[in-house]
Write a structure and sequence with these properties.
The protein is an alpha+beta fold. About 20% of the residues lie in helices and about 30% in strands. It is built from six helices and 19 strands. Helix 2 links the parallel strand 3 and strand 4.
Amino acid sequence: MARRRLLLLLKPFDVLPTHQFDNISNFRNPKLLQVLKYLDSRCLVHKEAINFCQNILRKKLVDWEAVYRFNLCRPIRDVDLVVTIGGDGTLLQASHFMDDSIPVLGVNSDPTQAKEVEEYNEEFDATRSTGYLCAATVKNFEQIIDDILENRARPSEVSRMSITLNSKHMPTYALNDVLIAHPCPATVSRFSFRTKKEDQSCSSLVHCRSSGLRVSTAAGSTAAMLSTGGFAMPVLSKDLQYIVREPIAPGLYNSLMHGTVKPEELMEIAWYCKEGLIYIDGSHLVHSVQHGDIIELSSKAPKLKVFLPSHLIS
């Protein structure tokens, strides 16, 4: 069997350990120390997960290289599998550098612990990493890797979103969602939108004054889209879902403030503010727009091959 080549993309250690606060009197408060110990625990669990996965791979017939996600700056090439160790954010970061030829496996390095959430419920939010798209944790990582290496597992093809600005395709595809809004959240965004198919309008032109427009893929429909009034979509759906955030006096257009864009359609947005921003997958990537710009969004983008958790595809 030929040796497989893997890239490990790692979430950085971005939490300070509690011992660095031991000599600061402001952190003598028991509740604050409790929070700091919780954060230190998260850092330690993540570090142990990275070490665990690397030790497993050392026993396999694979060659691998580990890279922290902030050091990733060029397209991922010449590997057979990408393994992200962190959470959904790390997998999202990887997706921006991947085409549809290489599969990715997400490892949730720091899953939420129900008992911990219950224990600290009245003190602070003790949820850890959601890892919605991550099929593995340290508990099942070796089994899943073995299944992949021995061709017993197949990745799913998850839809991404294509973004065009003034007829020019952006080089990055959105795996979760796109938010188009004014740079200042307190400023009203002015824009119009409609859905089109083969240069023919499929819906009325809708004029909006609101706090922005969010459009999500199926994979992103359980994130910000769901929290702002949208609905969860089957993860393998090819539809896009949109919602106008906080519309001002929508009137006759009220029923058009939320809907879907079919795979054969695209959404065309005309921007009518002096300035604006396109946020791709949260704050991962940001592009500027200005008055008169035309943005087109569709699901006609290369799919991302992902080894998904079994409950999402069963």
